[in-house]
Structures are given as C-alpha cells and as structure tokens.
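[User]
If only I could read backbone structure tokens as easily as an amino acid sequence. I have put the entry right below:
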Amino acid sequence: MWCKESLKHLAFQYILNGTEKSHYRPLYGLIRIPWSHPLTWLWTIFYYIFSAVGITAGAHRLWSHRSYKAKTPLRILLAIMNSAALQNDILEWSRDHRVHHKYSETDADPHNARRGFFFSHIGWLLVRKHPDVARKGKQLDMSDLYADKVVMIQRR
C-alpha cells in the first residue's frame, strides 16, 4: 500500500518532471535573454519588424482600409509577413478591423478599449470573440477580400 511519504514523493516528482515543469520554461528563457547570442538578438529584431510590417502595411493598410494598391508580388510578400505575426489570417484580421471601426466601443468591437488596455492590444487574440463580432462581420461587404486570390490562398 502507498504511504503518505511515498505519495508526497510521487507528487513532487510529477511536479518536477510532469507538465507543470513546462510552465517554468518560458521563465527560464526570459532569465537567459541577456546571455543570448548576438545573432539571436538580430533574428528577434528582424522577425519582429518583418511581422509588424505584415500587419501594418498588409492586413491593416492594404487589406482592411484599401489605402493603396499593390501588385501581386508585394501582396504575396505582405501575406507571408502577415502570417509570421500569427494574428489570424488576412480575411479574419481585416474583417475584425472593419467591424472595429464600424462598431467601435461596443460588444461587436473585437478589441474594445472598454475591456482594458491589455485586452485591446493583445487579449483580443487570446480569447473567443463576442458573438456580435461574427454577426456584425457577416453584414459587412468583404467582396474585395474574397476576390483577392492572395488572401484566399493564405486563408487555406
């Protein structure tokens, strides 16, 4: 039969070797940042800029607002850069942004600032959207995005 001491030992081993250990790995990574290789720093900065341009120049300015026209090679590059950001596909990101402008500060706003600073910048990507976001998003004209082959290929 199992005694209390052996059960405590097993629980301790589970915590050390089990899934709970994985929660400490990001913390360990943060602690190691100052000693990272310079090429790691360079890659991190490059990747951040690369993906930020994909969101800003691609999903936001080009596809959400249609602020400018871009030829196919640039649209393909921006779609790749947007994918690197891991912030949904272009169609969904653009739909959410259009809904945000049309229904700002309501439940239909996917990144409603009334829900807090963290939510409006990062949190909206981590939780399920309010049902009004999808409902109101279906009412928007998204035909320009459905007609864009680059957007539809990236969505697959």
Summary: The two ends are 55 Å apart (CA to CA). The chain has a mean pLDDT of 84. Residues 21 and 74 are 43 Å apart (CA to CA). The chain has one domain: 38-155.
